[in-house]
Design brief:
Distance between the termini: 80 Å
CATH class of the domain at 30-121 and 135-176: Mainly Alpha
Number of helices: 8
CATH superfamily of the domain at 30-121 and 135-176: Intergrase catalytic core
Number of strands: 7
Structural class: mainly alpha
Strand content: 5-15%
Order of helices and strands: HHHEEEEEHEEHHHH
Radius of gyration: 23 Å
CATH architecture of the domain at 30-121 and 135-176: Orthogonal Bundle
Length: 242
């Protein structure tokens, strides 16, 4: 307001910015994750695609925008990794995939291929509700995930899918405050609990600095008993007599 000349000084100059307190949360337990993946029918295009999206969130901790814009050519299932692009750091990063997730993606690609050969039914005319005509389905997307029309998914469409899943889970009695970023939080927290290298966690997350990675390792400190070292410092030594 002062810059605009509306006031003689900055009226909020003496007001301190409240400290930012990061939210606390627990990692999803196995029952919650099972409820999430069991919601989808993997034998349909939409079920296979949405299951693959949720597994992508759980397995890689991608941001919603990164997942929606993930390019087909940046998914290498044979080698077992994906390569999302982060606008925040202006770089590509490599995230490994487990065999279980690769199998889910192969199932999605199978149903995606079946969808592509099916024609799209349109109204014969914009106001004609009784007659339909078939048109060949054309692929317009270069992304890994696309809509039933063959178009790229938007980040908002991905978010809507997750919100609908949350509502269905709540209806069935499973209370999870589900949103895409919660799945990212869960991925990074679990990696910290697994004792992963902080440098690798930062890389997989696409963080600019170690500050955010340290935050997730700080969460894990309250559960130190769950953190297992990758290898004992005594590994390979002969210590006690046999």
């Amino acid at each position: 307001m002062r810059k605009k000349g509306w006031t003689e000084r900055d009226r909020f100059g003496d007001v301190k910015q409240p400290p930012f307190v990061r939210p606390k949360f627990d990692a999803l337990d196995p029952e919650q994750k099972q409820a999430i993946v069991s919601d989808f029918n993997p034998n349909t295009f939409f079920g296979a695609r949405n299951l693959a999206i949720l597994c992508m969130f759980l397995e890689t901790g991608m941001r919603r925008e990164e997942l929606a814009h993930l390019q087909e050519k940046r998914v290498d299932l044979a080698a077992g990794y994906v390569e999302p692009y982060s606008e925040k750091t202006d770089e590509w990063r490599v995230i490994p995939l487990s065999p279980e997730t690769v199998a889910v993606y192969h199932n999605y690609l199978k149903w995606r291929a079946k969808l592509l050969v099916k024609p799209i039914r349109h109204r014969a005319a914009p106001t004609d509700y009784n007659h339909r005509r078939n048109e060949a389905r054309t692929l317009k997307a270069t992304t890994f995930f696309w809509s039933w029309k063959g178009e790229a998914l938007s980040p908002d469409a991905v978010g809507l899918m997750v919100r609908r899943l949350r509502n269905r889970l709540q209806t069935s009695g499973t209370e999870i405050a589900l949103h895409p970023h919660l799945l990212r939080h869960n991925f990074l927290t679990e990696k910290a609990l697994d004792g992963e290298n902080p440098s690798m966690v930062r890389h997989w997350a696409g963080h600019r600095s170690y500050e955010m990675a340290d935050y997730y390792f700080g969460i894990a400190e309250s559960k130190l008993a769950a953190i297992k070292p990758k290898q004992s410092t005594l590994a390979g030594l002969s210590i006690l007599p046999t």
